[in-house]
Amino acid sequence: MRFRSLFTSVARSHVPIFPPLLTRSTANPTTPWFFPCTRLGSPPGGRFGSALIAPATTTDDAQRPPFAPLPPPTADKAEMYKGLEASLGSPFSSDPLAPPPSPIIVVISGPSGVGKDAIIKKLQEVREGIHFVVTATSRPQRPGEVDGKDYYFVSKEEFLLMVERNELLEYALVYGDYKGIPKQQIRDYMAKGFDIVLRVDIQGAATLRSILGQSAVFIFLVAESEATLVNRLVARNTESPEMLLVRIATAREEIKYMKRFDYIVVNAEGKLDSAVKLVESIIDAEKARVWHRNVKI
């Protein structure tokens, strides 16, 4: 209590309790020192860009809040909280200290047979707040596929009309059929705060990179080996031997584009859950970035 009384009387008289902070003009140049400062900003150009530092300003006596004694050490939680507010002269804010993460666009791509559809389907089951953009396509509907859920199945004439109306973010002719991404879906769901997941082939990913640049996250899916990839294509039983050869040859070329993506995820046989967890980790890490990706569609 004697120390507390001494501290209070000194604080009222504005006599400094501690010695002045050292400066290079009065101290050994090799001696480190500290000074009160305010960070004015850090440019986004580098991970640790040079920050502008300015000395903290002092408050004039006329601007100081009226002195309020600190609560006693025996004060309960509520009394301590109110006492600290009174001593600081302002209430504590309940506003979030960090800004809410912005919705992001995740582009998932890879050769045929790597499991893009399986990854996305599982991701939708285990994660909230994401929207898988349903792609429009002119190819025939496969057994088990649902129109409006797996794809929007349209005729080539209808697809070309969508192109003419500028309704597609990206489109391409793939194995003789058109595929494209409707813009309005992305706008509507991002406005609701949803993260967007796009499934495209390598050609589509290249086009999206040229359109979106670094504003989207690009993930490259691969199987653990070429043998596994071929076995998956054969097991689908949806193509003729001639078309299988085309897909395998195309996959060999597409693998070369792997390094142009932001992340690589191996979808190993029997380990779908692990691959999905890795995709989730990528999304979580991206949403925790200090500098958010700014997407405009």
What does this structure look like?
With 297 residues, the chain is α/β, with parallel strands linked by helices. The chain has a domain at 105-287: 3-Layer(aba) Sandwich (Rossmann fold), CATH 3.40.50. 35% of the residues lie in helices and 17% in strands. The strands form three sheets. It has a five-stranded parallel sheet, sandwiched between helices. Strands 6-5-8-7 form a four-stranded mixed sheet. Strands 1-2 form a two-stranded antiparallel sheet. β7 and β8 form a beta hairpin. α3 (116-126) crosses α9. The termini are far apart.
Topology:
Layout: H1 2-13, E1 37-41, E2 52-55, H2 77-88, E3 105-109, H3 116-126, E4 130-132, E5 135-137, E6 151-153, H4 156-164, E7 168-174, E8 177-182, H5 183-191, E9 195-199, H6 202-212, E10 217-222, H7 226-236, H8 241-254, E11 263-266, H9 272-287
Parallel strand pairs: 3-9, 3-10, 4-9, 5-6, 10-11
Antiparallel strand pairs: 1-2, 5-8, 7-8
Helix pairs in contact: 3-9
InterPro entries: GK/Ca_channel_bsu, Guanylate_kin-like_dom, Guanylate_kinase, Guanylate_kinase_CS, P-loop_NTPase
GO molecular function, one term: ATP binding
Family: Belongs to the guanylate kinase family.
* Fraction in helix: 25-40%
CATH topology of the domain at 105-287: Rossmann fold
- Give me the side-by-side strand order of the main sheet: 4-9-3-10-11
What is the overall pLDDT average?
82
Oligomer: single chain
